[in-house]
Amino acid sequence: MRRLILPMLVAAAASLPGIASAQSGDAAAGQRVFNQCRACHTADQGGRNGVGPNLFGIVGRKAASIDGFRYSANMRSLAEGGLEWNEDRLRAYITNPKAVVPQGSMSFPGLRNETQLNDLIAYLSTLK
Questions:
Q1: What pTM, to 2 d.p., does this model score?
Q2: What is the mean pLDDT of each run of 10 residues along the chain (128 residues)?
Q3: Does an H or E element contain 119, and which?
Q4: What is the DSSP secondary structure assignment for residue 106, as one 8-state letter?
């Protein structure tokens, strides 16, 4: 019974207007937040890889799927296990990359500001 209660509470809370709007973001503001990412990533369709892979189309993309980019062994292993970059996984990864990919090569320590995080994910979601 306990196992059913928590998912029901989470689903109910997510449907509340205040909770839903907390995760919505401003894509224009997110584009400015992305400037922190530009040292390693590009976001242009067909753009080059940098120190990190090109992030165009990242939302909904299978992890470690950009041809020609050298991903860490840990990232490749997670991708083989089915890791796909949806908004929730991106949120967890951007907040604390080492919590999602412990032996990954991303040196960014994480984005902790919730507003900036929501805005950045809103921006990344527009890259289609």
A1: 0.80
A2: 42 40 81 96 96 98 96 97 97 97 95 97 97
A3: helix 114-126
A4: -
